């Protein structure tokens, strides 16, 4: 996840709301996939307020990693507790096959990053969490928890833009980099100019400008729709699309249910379905032949 990108380019990381979706992301040639806290929560029928357990999230990470074979960047919300739980979260995500996670500086219960009414933890509180996460990740890279694992990326998300203002978001991000975050995720930026200024202002404060940046391209929020190429030009290393595929899928589900209810037949939307052969092709299954787990 921390590999250097080509200048002016950004890595697109679609969000997988289940393992089959992760497999489809890999099939389409994407180089990584993302596990969203929002998509994971609503897929379980609950709101994105941090009520699911670490074990639930870890299972989703493991399933996506196993099914796709891709590096998986995963939402860890507020870390499932205080410093000790943050350390455990890093270790459990890595054991599950995750390539990295991000932590946010909201108070629990958290809110979707594009809603109003958020509250932030004190800076020193978040710094402590980042420090524990970074130490745990370093332990993994030295092989203290597993045999020669790949590097595990620690990303710090700040929601300060919508609570304390733009300058505070940059300042908090700088503190988190100093605490050991390799990547920064500024949530809730509202214009292209803000994304560009954030990248410029933060890198100007970090020695050598050495910090990775993540942008969140979510729909129906505070951020306008911005093309991947434009994010790359502004200096963002990767762009997540956390709930896009879930929204597309659930839009289709609701339309199909409406037609089934009103017409009593699947015929009106049969041509919109993935066929049996297309499904089997996606999971690389041939009926009558023993199926092998992906390598």
The largest sheet is:
8 strands, parallel
> What multimeric state do the chains show?
single chain
Task: State the distance separating the first and last CA atoms.
Answer: 19 Å
Order of helices and strands: EHEHHEHEHEHEHEHEHH
Which shape, going by the Cα principal axes? globular
Strand residue percentage: 5-15%
Unreliable stretches: 143-147
User: Got a strand count?
Assistant: 8
The whole-number mean of residue pLDDT values reads 92
The whole-angstrom Rg is 20 Å
How are the strands of the biggest sheet laid out side by side? 1-8-7-6-5-4-3-2
What is the share of helical residues? 40-55%
Explain this structure to me?
The protein has 295 residues and is of the alpha/beta class. 42% of the residues lie in helices and 12% in strands. The chain contains 10 helices and 8 strands. The chain has helices at 19-27, 37-43, 54-68, 83-95, 123-141, 166-178, 192-205, 228-233, 244-263, 276-282, and strands at 11-14, 33-35, 72-75, 100-104, 153-158, 183-186, 212-216, 238-241. The chain has an 8-stranded parallel sheet. Strand 5, helix 6 (166-178) and strand 6 form a beta-alpha-beta unit. The longest helix is centred in the last third of the chain and has 20 residues, at 244-263.
Element layout with pairings:
Elements (H helix, E strand, L loop, with lengths): L10 E4 L4 H9 L5 E3 L1 H7 L10 H15 L3 E4 L7 H13 L4 E5 L18 H19 L11 E6 L7 H13 L4 E4 L5 H14 L6 E5 L11 H6 L4 E4 L2 H20 L12 H7 L13
Helix pairs in contact: 1-3, 3-4, 4-5, 6-7
